[in-house]
Every structure is written in structure tokens, then in C-alpha cells.
Amino acid sequence: MQYVSAESNPLRPVLYATALWDAACSVTALQAIRAALLRMTSGVMAGLLKRAWAAASSRLEAQGFEPGLHRSVLLEPDAVPDVSGAALVLPAGASAEGPTAERLSRLFTLIQGDTLVHSQVRAVLARLQVAAIRVALHEPAMLESADHPVWRLLNRIASAGASYPTPADKRRTALMVFCDALAEEISRSPVGDAMAFRRAIVRLDAFLAEQLQWQLREAEASVTALQRAERRALLEELIGRRLTEQIAPVRASPSIRRFVTGAWARVLAESMVRFGEQAEPTPSYMKTVDELLWSLQTPDHPHSRQRLIALLPGLLKRLRSGIALIALPAAEEQAVLDELMALHAKALRPGQRGVATALPADEIVRRMREEVIPDTPALPAFGDSVIDLASMQTLPAALLATNVGAPAEAAKRVDALTPGERLRLFLRGGWVPLQLLWRSDKGLFFLFAGVQAGATHSITRRALERLDAAGLMKPLEDTPVVQRAFDALANQLSLPA
């Protein structure tokens, strides 16, 4: 139909109020009992009516019908919301009951048409419309501040709902049930100020905090594994520095140096984390370092050759055991063992070996630092993979350079992440809504709740910094739902008639 009126609405409250009164009259003729019956049933009826209205509106919008409000409400040019700064809506002084209700109704209509908000969330927000209008009439400051409790609650509900895009997600179901109860309580509140909204924000925050802890408890195994991974990484760095100093005066090829300071540092760190520093095989692996470095510079003497012959079987056995512990690629393992075999075979031959004069220790260390040592991907130690750029298939090849973006700024933003924060990350070819559940003590690993309930993403700090530097880590919502509605309203009012 081209035009509608208030009487065209089959869900208008007067019909239901009249029917409720007729029903009360048919039950009893006593006025006091009728009044008590109406008081008990009217709140419930109002909530059900608003829910039916929201559902009917959603069905009509899905069928392509344009709400009549878009045609029947015309705002004056000077009533355009101020969205350039912190203020969201009306200019100061424009708070008459009629215009205020009209503008807020227009706002909620736009929220109901926001396709970025799930239909279940829109239904909850629609139930807050009458209470929001009541507060605006009681507190004109609501129309001048983006930080008013009414807007904060609406934005908080929409943001939390956006974290769970899957319809069958039990987290979203629990959130919607809770928010629906909040909306019902607010709509039935006899007080016209924002106190009910303030209480609702506190309760919603408490619910979200408990939901976060519940997800964290479900991910306890992943958290434990990440704690071990961080301890392993810190130990590996410390051990690598000490082995670099220890091997500095030894005559060894670059590949052997990389094996000792890199792969064997990982062996020692993994063994310490998995078995303990004093329990076997950790002491044996530490002893292996001394024996290996001695075998690389044995004196040309019969006793030295005899000691090397006795030492080699056990040394090679421990080397193979340690290599298996960190699952070193077979090609790297074979290359190291072949080089050691050639060196030991030469050491076992009698006679002068013609070894060149050793370089000073500081010169060896300097040369080692100048060597280009390829990064070795971290070994996954648990079910959920530790996502890093080497395996996440996230960035275009052009963005994989080490100088992407502004590393210092990216590091600051990663440092500022706190558990509970909701983000969008571009992972494996698409934007994924995630919530930070936990970060390790040193900030090397971050655990995010996934799109599916119970799924998690374990992401390294380096990967997050590279994502942020490339513009692939963003807030969950670029603009809150209420601000989007006012932006849309301002745009509509600026269009020529």
C-alpha cells in the first residue's frame, strides 16, 4: 500500500490493551481484582507484543517491504544529527517529546535495517526502543553524548553478538538468552532514567567475563602447551647464546656452528621442558656438547685417537636421539652427520692434519653474527597449531618482506591487546572474528577463541605484528552500530528531496 496510518497496524498496543481489559472483565466483576490482574499481566504482554512487532518487522523487511516510517516522518534540515564529533544526535535544546520520539524511532528503524547486525541481535535491540525513548525524555544529555549508558549497552550487545556468526553456536545462544532477559527487565522498569541501562551494562560485562573464563577453562590444554612453548622458546634463546660463546674458539664450519647453536639449542630446551633439567636425557645431551666440540679439535696423538674411537658410538647415538626429539628434517640430519663423519675420519688418520691457524675468538664470533641463518619454524607441540607466517597462508608474497609496515607501531598495538578483546584477523584467505582468551606471560603467544565453539587459534607474537603491520588485524567493528545508524540518518537527511 502507498500510505499507512496508525490504525493500519494490527499489532498496535491499544488493540491488545482493550482485549486484555475485556478478558479481565470476563474473569471478575470486582474492580480491585481486575486492576491487580492487569498489573501482573500487562508487563508480560508488553514484552511479548514488542517481540512480535520486531519479528513481524524482520519478516516484512526480508520480503522487501520498506517501513512506512521512512515515508511518513520528515525531519527538518536543522534537526540533522551531529555525527562529526562525540555527540551522536540532536543539537542542544531540541528535546521536545514529539521530535525526540520521532528521531529515536527513526534511529531504531535504521538499526533494524543494519545487515551487519544479526537478526537475533536486532530483535533484542528493538525491545529497548521504548525504554530508550523514555530515558531520552527524562535525560536530554543522552542525545548529546556517545558515552551515554543507552548507547553503550546497544553497542555492547551488538559487538558481542558479532563475535559469533554461526547460528548454532552455543555461546551466541547463551548470550541472546541473557540479553533478552536484560531487555525484558529494562522494558518493565518503572524508572525513567538510565539506571536500568547502567545496571544492565554491569551485568552484561559480568556475563561476558564469565563466558570468557568458561572458554578459557575449555582451552586449558592449549594454554598449558603454550606456556611450555614460551618456556621452551626462552630457554632456546638463552642456551643458543651460551653455545655461541662456547663454540667461538673451536675450528668448525658454518654448518656445524649453526647445528650446535641452533638445532642442538632446541634439543636442550625441549629436553629441559619435557623431562626437566636434572633428569635424563638432559644431562646426557649437555654432555654431548662438550664431547662434540672436543671431537672437532682432537690433538694429533694416539691416545686422542683411541679416546675418539671409544667416544664416537655413544656420541652418535645421543646426536641421533636429540635430533629425533626435535624432528629435525632428514636432509639436515644427514648433512650434519655426513660432515661429522668426514671430520672424524680425518681425525682418526695418523700424521699431521695440516689444520690452519685458528682465528681469534672475537673474530669467529663476529663472522658468525654476519652469517645468514635461515629461520626454523617452531615445532607444534599440541593439537592447535601455532600459526606463523610460514604456515598460515595469509599474506600475499609481496607482503612477506621483513620491512612490512611500521614494526614499532605494530608492536605497541600487540602489547596493548588484553584478554576479552574482540578482533578481526585475515587468516587463510578471509576475515575471521576472534576473541583473545589468553596471552602468555612474556607475550610470545596469544590464544584466541575461534568461530566455532571450542575451537582456538594459537598465534605467535611475530605473526600478529606482521598481520597488524600489513593492515590485516582490525577491531571487530570499525564503527559501532549506533554510530552507523546516525551516519545513515544524516546521509538520508542530506539527500535532496
Q: State the end-to-end distance.
A: 21 Å
Largest sheet properties:
6 strands, mixed
Along the chain, the helix and strand elements come as HHHHHHHHHHHHHHHEHHEEEEHEH
Tertiary shape = elongated
| Total count of helical runs of at least 4 residues | 19
- Total discrete domains: 3
Strand content: 5-15%
User: Structural class of the helices, strands and pairings?
Assistant: alpha+beta
Integer-rounded radius of gyration? 34 Å
Within the largest sheet, what's the order of strands? 1-5-4-3-2-6
Helix amount: 55-70%
Instruction: Provide mean pLDDT, rounded.
Output: 78
Low-confidence stretches: 69-95, 352-359, 371-385, 388-405
Total strands: 6
Please give the structural blueprint.
Elements: H1 13-27, H2 31-62, H3 69-72, H4 97-112, H5 119-126, H6 129-138, H7 149-162, H8 170-187, H9 195-218, H10 220-247, H11 254-275, H12 282-295, H13 302-325, H14 330-348, H15 361-370, E1 386-387, H16 389-392, H17 407-415, E2 422-427, E3 430-439, E4 445-449, E5 456-460, H18 461-469, E6 473-475, H19 481-494
Parallel strand pairs: 1-5
Antiparallel strand pairs: 2-3, 2-6, 3-4, 4-5
Helix pairs in contact: 1-2, 2-5, 4-5, 4-6, 4-19, 5-8, 7-9, 8-9, 10-11, 11-12, 12-13, 13-14, 17-18
